[in-house]
What does this fold into?
Amino acid sequence: MLGSAGDPSYLTVWRSCAKPFQLFSFVESGGFDACGWGSEEMALACASHGGEPEHVELAARMLDSIGLEEGDLACGAHEPMTRRGVRLMHQAGLSPSRLHNNCSGKHAGMLAFARGQSWSTLGYERLGHEVQNRALAQIARWSGSPRDDMALMVDGCGVVAVGLPLGALAIAFARLGAAAEMGDEVPVRILAAIAAHPFLFGGTDRFDTVLVEESAGRLISKVGAEGVHAVTIPAEGIAVAIKVEDGATRAQHPALLKLLQLLGVLPEELSPRLAAFARTPIMNTRNELVGEVRVAS
It folds into this structure.
């Protein structure tokens, strides 16, 4: 570990930061390619997407291509995570569905993995299913943390969630980026898919999408719920991970951007799109700006 602030041993539940590693065995097995899927599907399988029509339609096509449907997804329904997604859903007269869930691409990938290996698709999200066993093995491999050291629980979408020291999350993302830089096939494909399809990976005005676009794919970041975030910097062979202790997201983006600036991988003067994330406005119930969250100078 090159450096830390706070407590790098702090138990951190990876939440959606685990998605690239949860996909890894499926791609490595050849099953992903056997589905006839490409880089768009790969980006969505790693995504915490905004539930916009493009995301929903792609997730539905992924399921249809393996002979399954929305009802086979174990994730629950929730409203889209972008304003555009909410607006377009209501304009179309639709209600939130499982396809709108920000994890629907991940779940479609897990179902496809189970289907291709002739494992039961029932309970694919649960501890003990081989899909989850393979995902945990990849997290152990890339983080260097044995499965016995993991705190295992249930994520918001129903899949097994992993808790490890915060430093282990940074190590996993650093190794993933370094492996891609060295030309290892699966890491190259995963990071290249995200870089090629940042909108599918996040959505309109989503932080991960904006950072990937504004850095031209040099930085790949992955958000997790409850104030967790990781960024891999492949060319440097390093990564950063943060956890906002109270789980609130208001401090997450300002802190992460400042850290990337201190590392010299983002300029002192941020692009307008990134600068918008560097200060979180605080509004009252009259929609008046009454304060902001920013990094203390």
